[in-house]
Amino acid sequence: MDDKSPQDFAAILEQLYRNEFRRVLATLIRLLGDFDQAEEALHDAFKAALEQWPQQGIPGNPRAWLVSVGRFKAIDKIRRDARFDALGEIPEDYEALTANPDEASDENLQDDQLRLIFTCCHPSLSPEAQIALTLREICGLTTEEIARAFLIAPKTAAQRIVRAKAKIREARIPYEVPQPEQLTERLDAVLQVIYLVFNEGYSASSGTELTRHDLSAEAIRLGRLLMELLPVEAEIRGLLALMLLQDSRRAARTSAQGDLILLDEQDRALWHRDQIAEGVILVKQALSMSGFGAYTLQAAIAAVHAEAPSADATDWREIVALYDVLLHIYPSPVVALNRAVAIAMRDGPDAGLTQIATLIAQGQLKDYHWIYAAQADCYRRLGETAPAIKAYQQALQLAQQEPERRFLQKRLAELRNK
């Protein structure tokens, strides 16, 4: 009997769930071959841990224990429900971890999430289904969170997920990393999904917290795994560099109260210098390779910010030049907005307002709160209080995240009190 209290075990399991449930779930999906069965097995395993660990103690390898118990719970349920006429029809992978749960080492299980991402990004699924399924199964986002992130109805998000699961099951899409000759055609979707996972952690789409470090850390880990798998692909290095450079600022992005701190106001002493150094090296490597693209260019922009000793010393000319190239190869309204902000910093707020007005007139970012926040900041810098207040109000109406809302409310209060 362990001397820990039931509350201690509950706290340990809660922490373990946050840190490990994605990896445990990915392995159970591979072993069971079914998303819904794996999700049910995951919850059964954690329930069993809550009941057994206070009496038996915490196993040496908790993740492997959870995988093994979850697998056995699923097999028992399959037998009870008579879903198979004979035990021989149970997938062979069910027997992979039988003798001793601790035999399932971290090395054996660590790439299951990568296998699962390639499965979720199979070309037979639509791009929308790929993203929705990955955010649900890899990130653990709720249907409502996915819907808010992509400005769609929760019912639509749920339908995409259900249909994607059914397609994988009916088409018997394998849970595996593709062969080298198939990797390139699947890589773009996988990179996009890993970056979406990172972004949801770096700047959560909604809720009370600005960041979810667990998601960002998982995305970086998956980026490293992918680079080991395909070391010759420049964009993998570029994406990993971009994530490291952005994550390096995490400690400086919020106050002790959880309020948003913009880049130019951040305490750069809090930036993680080891991540910056690694990110800069990866950027240089990616730029020297053939085939670099949007992720590498975004990483190069992040590197300029990271290497500037202060906000005033930022080389905005170089940043605008990089955005020019990025916008040419990746014509995106969000990239155009970021370029407009950079132009406002290089040439002054009037120049930025001209660019932003064009983007607003095009209508592609009409529901994107940051375009109005950028417009408001330009007016604020020019001392034009009334249009700044109006733009901040528009941004506030659209913002979903509490720290961002508090930031916009603070800016409004400052302008109204002038």
Description:
68% of the residues lie in helices and 0% in strands. Among the domains are: 6-104; 326-418, Serine Threonine Protein Phosphatase 5, Tetratricopeptide repeat. Residues 90-105 have low confidence and may be disordered. It contains 19 helices and no strands. The longest helix is centred in the first third of the chain and has 27 residues, at 6-32. α9 runs parallel beside α11 and α10 (213-229) runs antiparallel to α11. It is globular and about 70 Å long. It has 418 residues and is mostly helical. The protein has helices spanning 6-32, 35-56, 62-81, 106-109, 112-120, 127-137, 143-149, 154-170, 180-202, 213-229, 234-247, 273-287, 294-307, 316-329, 333-347, 349-362, 369-382, 385-398, 402-416.
Overall shape: globular
Radius of gyration: 24 Å
Distance between the termini: 65 Å
* Beta-strand proportion: under 5%
Low-pLDDT regions = 90-105
Average pLDDT over all residues? 86
| Helix and strand sequence | HHHHHHHHHHHHHHHHHHH
Based on DSSP secondary structure assignment, what is the total number of beta strands? 0
Percent of residues in helices comes to 55-70%
Report the structural category. Answer: mainly alpha
